[in-house]
Amino acid sequence: MTVFERIYAIVRQIPPGRVATYGQVAMLAGNPRWARVVGYALHQNPDPDTIPCHRVVNRQGRTASAFAFGGEDMQRFLLEAEGVGFTPEGVVDLEKYIWHTDVDNR
Fold it and tell me: DSSP E strands: which ranges in the chain?
């Protein structure tokens, strides 16, 4: 399995209404230093319908300014449609919506 395939497999597991950070996905894919690789892989996402890259945000909860599938506003729109809330500052409330792999995948 390639690095990108490992990343895509992790991202497919993020449930609707939850987000993960690039670093979190990198760690789960096998190397916590791959956060930028995660970003690159998601920008190259071959199947956005089954690989929900909109559920990955940065460590502050910010959406991608260069979201490859419709821009930053589209990422926020998709997250809000799944029930993800944003703070008044415009970032995802990570305390409430971060994906807890040990709890959310039961």
Answer: 20-21, 56-57
Give pLDDT tens digits along the chain (106 positions). Answer: 899 999 999 999 999 999 999 999 999 999 999 999 999 999 999 999 999 999 999 999 999 887 778 876 899 999 999 999 999 999 999 999 999 987 555 4
Residue 89 token pair: 């500052």
The C-alpha atoms of residue 96 and residue 1 are separated, in whole angstroms, by 32
What residues are labeled active site? 53
* Chain position carrying tokens 């996905």: 25
CATH class of domain segment(s) 3-104 = mainly alpha
Domain ranges of the chain: 3-104
pTM of the model: 0.92
Tokens of 31: 């190397």
